[in-house]
Design a protein that fits this description.
heterodimer; A: alpha/beta; ten-stranded mixed sheet; eight-stranded mixed sheet; B: alpha/beta; six-stranded parallel sheet; globular
């Protein structure tokens, strides 16, 4: 969890600025000076990432701001929020700035984060790339947090990708699996940049627990003999369930053969294992207490044995393998800010995700063709 | 579990997980489990690793101690320890419950073959109940006198077979001090090697598990700008400080035998020194790193008798004040001889006879009851060859790169900067990187890293037999010289007030070279 003990002081400029890079930097500098004046010790500045967050509508800004505030104590960033105003007032592009100063337990203070919010009318996105290039802290990597799947993809492709060193998406924002395919196409365009997904990171706890079932002494043999996979998920979590199946299918080299409607309005996929034996995967929606990962259980049948991770509470799961008694374990439920911290760290460089995303998109194409319609 | 069972197939689902390096299921047996280290460090570290999912899901801890203790009482004691000392606090009830279910305790004497037979039976039972493959880590958190008997007993009970591919592993972690001089270290190495292969032995020095100590290698060898100036052309001298505010804390009996040179310098400070001074290893793997550290230890110049008093200072604390309260003199501490000549402070000037370090003095100091608890390495660079700023040059100080190992782990670089204004005034400024600030997370405890490394079979951050002997070889000559001085009737021992930075003799040692100790 992000350390909540840190005490925030917020320094903001009163009104919006005209968008002139020199003025923005000067004002940020004066906020830094202002913070130093209220402190006995020097306030230093730390920046590990430039974090660009495109968004639509002023109503989304408080959420972005809350995310940056929560992020700041864990990863010092210069956040640059780019907002396309959905209710244009005829105002040109404008900027607001803020800095968050966090008191350290030892007494020292650090300017952890600076937030620059640029708001402009529709069409302003054409200027965003240049603004980001000018406002990036030099020598510091830039990540783009692409959380709104409905933002114009040209903004990302044309303006932001050239300055982006890491792209962070959220597959959970795909309301329908068809959007997953669009996101997969967008992500493919971002390669070879590291691609992180908050949805994939939400699956992390479950993947880790399920993978742990096949550590020695069990080993990978039951996975090679698997004949049936069942993923139960909360209604609306189709994308998450699809990613879970894609993860297993990809790593175990299962070849997707066909798709059909499954039980309880779920999905069924038929695969061929290496060697030609069949394996069926069932994705079954249901209702139960769950976090945003939406996964309720993953069950794998291998011969007569079952390997199961079942959520028993929002933050708890039971793991079952044939050779040992069942065990209750903790499931981590992370906030979006905590997931962003992970995405900016080593977990955000997981090349497996891009491959799983492409595999999941393929699965969805199979399903769509079988059903004749896209969900 | 059948120990000869074929090895499990690799787990393909580990690919891409950050927790890719999950150790194999195992039981960790802690000898001396009712002691302070288990309660304050070991169990809290294992709990935090469990909380972070870095331990295998099937893992057990078996405490072994001389005291009779009910298993539930042991668990309760360990729970209190974790509540107080674990990095991941407050304890998560469900994680603790799952962890504690696999915490066991057994009473026994360290040299009792029957107790070790019972231990073997118990371990087999645990393996069977939890589906474990028979892997063992034995942690010797006992008094040093018990190291050899425990290892002998493990051998007799066939609990620590030498490594064989495809068979369960048995590894032994040995706490410091490893010997009290060169002869005893050699003897202990011989005894240990009678039972164990060197690859099974993990001599722990918890300083090496600290994030900044590891970062020292990253800092030096992953950044292009430092290594070219990391030599006698640019560095004037190096200071390594390991200071403590505490006194002997009820361990007067132990400290009387040890003294600061054995307690801190032979292990912690020389290990830190070897990392700071070593050549780049060919690879970041156990023997690559340890080979280079060993070369540094072997290159330490022996201090000539004629230079001894100019290069070695020892002292003992007198009464004084720490953190606003009065504290007694060392000789007034419980368990300490009122006429003791044991040093509680030692300062050394030493040289490393290599091309890189020719002529660069390394000043080491360590002491108890100093004003601040701090461990740091300070690399003091040479001054600019020509100073342009006339009388303002008095404010220009040499650049110092200080690497803080504890507390507030981080790195700071000091340099001179012009003060704003019409005058050409120069003031020192500091550019600081702190782990807690820059990464927003406190680094893991040293024991977490080291226990995990041992479970993974990675001995890079543990000390090898030849390193221990090389450091003792250098340190023992100082002890020998002190013994000769004492035999010759020279028993003078400078004093320093508790709460001061040490004796004047130590300051004079640096002043004679035109230098001064940093105030960390």
């Amino acid at each position: 969890m992000i350390d909540a003990r840190a005490k925030f002081e917020r320094f903001a400029r009163g009104e919006a600025l005209t968008v002139e890079v020199g003025e923005i930097e000067r004002e940020l500098g004066s906020l830094w000076q202002q913070a130093s004046q209220t402190s006995d010790s020097a306030v230093s500045r730390a920046v590990l990432w430039n974090l660009v967050v495109p968004t639509r509508g002023r109503a989304t800004l408080p959420r972005i701001k809350a995310l940056c505030d929560e992020l700041a104590p864990a990863v010092p960033v210069r956040a640059i929020a780019l907002c396309i105003d959905d209710q244009p007032s005829g105002q040109p592009l404008s900027a607001t700035i803020e800095s968050n100063v966090v008191s350290q337990p030892g007494g020292g203070r650090v300017v952890y984060s600076e937030e620059i919010t640029l708001v402009g009318p529709p069409g302003a996105e054409a200027h965003f790339g240049a603004m980001v290039r000018a406002l990036q802290v030099p020598g510091v990597r830039t990540a783009t947090l692409w959380m709104d799947a409905a933002m114009p993809s040209s903004l990302l492709a044309r303006e932001l990708l050239p300055v982006t060193r890491r792209l962070i998406v959220d597959t959970a924002s795909c309301g329908r699996p068809v959007e997953l395919r669009e996101l997969a196409a967008l992500a493919a365009g971002a390669l070879p940049r590291p691609l992180a997904d908050l949805g994939w990171l939400r699956l992390g706890s479950f993947r880790l627990l399920f993978a742990g079932l096949f550590d020695p002494p069990v080993g990978g043999a039951p996975l090679r003999r698997a004949s049936r996979l069942t993923v139960r998920y909360r209604h609306g979590g189709d994308v998450s369930a699809l990613l879970a199946v894609a993860w297993l299918g990809l790593l175990l080299d299962w070849r997707p053969m066909r798709a059909a409607e499954g039980p309880d309005r779920g999905m069924r996929f038929d695969f061929e294992r290496p060697g030609g034996d069949p394996i069926q995967a069932f994705l079954i929606p249901g209702e139960a207490a769950c976090d945003r990962s939406a996964i309720l259980s993953i069950e794998l049948t291998s011969g007569r044995d079952e390997y199961v991770v079942t959520r028993t509470a929002v933050d708890q799961a039971e793991v079952r393998v044939p050779i040992a008694p069942p065990k209750t374990v903790k499931l981590d439920a992370a906030s979006d800010a905590e997931l962003c911290v992970a995405a900016l760290g080593p977990r955000g460089r997981d090349p497996l995700f891009a491959r799983c995303l492409a595999y999941a998109a393929r699965l969805w194409s199979l399903e769509a063709n079988a059903a004749g319609s896209l969900r | 579990m059948d120990a000869a069972a074929p090895p499990a197939l690799p787990n393909p689902l580990r690919e891409g997980l950050v927790e890719e390096r999950i150790p194999e299921p195992a039981v960790m047996v802690i000898f001396g489990a009712s002691g302070d280290l288990a309660r304050r460090k070991l169990l809290p570290a294992l709990y935090s690793l469990t909380r972070d999912r870095l331990l295998p899901s099937r893992f057990a801890v078996l405490g072994f101690g001389r005291h009779a203790l009910e298993e539930d009482a042991f668990r309760e004691e360990m729970r209190r320890g974790c509540e107080e000392f674990a990095r991941r606090r407050p304890l998560d009830a469900s994680v603790w419950a799952a962890f504690a279910r696999n915490v066991f305790y057994q009473q026994g004497a360290y040299d009792d073959p029957a107790a070790f037979q019972r231990l073997k039976v118990r371990l087999d039972e645990i393996d069977h109940a939890l589906g474990l493959p028979g892997n063992r880590v034995f942690y010797l958190s006992t008094p040093p006198s018990a190291f050899a008997p425990v290892i002998r007993s493990l051998g007799q009970a066939q609990l620590a077979p030498r490594p064989t591919p495809g068979r369960p592993f048995a590894r032994v972690i040995i706490e410091k001090p490893f010997g009290v001089d060169l002869d005893t270290a050699r003897a202990l190495n011989r005894q240990v090697h009678e039972i164990l292969d060197e690859r099974q032995i993990y001599r722990i020095d918890h300083y090496l598990g600290k994030e900044t100590v590891q970062n020292l290698l990253v800092f030096r060898f992953a950044n292009g700008i430092f290594e070219p100036i990391w030599n006698n052309h640019f560095i004037d001298h190096v200071q390594i400080t390991g200071s403590e505010t505490v006194g002997v804390e009820g361990r007067g009996g132990y400290f009387e035998q040890a003294g600061s040179l054995r307690d801190m310098v032979q292990n912690h400070l020389l290990q830190v020194l070897s990392l700071a001074a070593m050549e780049p290893p060919v690879a970041f793997e156990a023997d690559g790193v340890r080979d280079e550290k060993l070369k540094v230890l072997k290159a330490l110049r022996q201090i000539a008798p004629a230079d001894f008093d100019r290069q070695v200072v020892r002292a003992q604390y007198a009464a004084g004040s720490i953190a606003g309260r009065g504290v007694p003199a060392y000789r007034a501490e419980p368990g300490v001889d009122p006429r003791s000549t044991t040093e509680t402070y030692v300062a050394l000037k030493l040289f490393i006879d290599t091309w890189r370090w020719a002529g660069v003095p390394f000043y080491l100091r360590s002491g108890k009851r100093l004003p601040k608890r701090v461990t740091e390495i300070a690399i003091v660079f040479k001054e600019a060859p020509h100073l342009l700023f006339g009388k303002r040059t008095e404010t220009i100080r040499p650049n110092v790169l200080s690497i803080r190992i504890q507390p507030d782990e981080g790195i700071a670089l000091n340099f001179g900067s012009k003060l704003p204004g019409p005058a050409m005034e120069v003031a020192p400024v500091s550019m600081e990187f702190r782990y807690g600030s820059s990464f927003g997370v406190e680094p893991p405890e040293a024991y977490e890293r080291l226990l995990l490394d041992c479970l993974l079979g990675d001995s890079t951050l543990f000390t090898r037999a030849d390193e221990v002997e090389a450091s003792w070889s250098w340190v023992s000559r100082i002890h020998q010289r002190w013994a000769e001085q004492t035999a010759a009737g020279d028993t003078t021992l400078p004093g320093y007030a508790a709460g001061s930075w040490g004796p004047q003799e130590s300051d004079r040692m640096l002043a004679a070279d035109g230098r001064a100790w940093r105030l960390p």
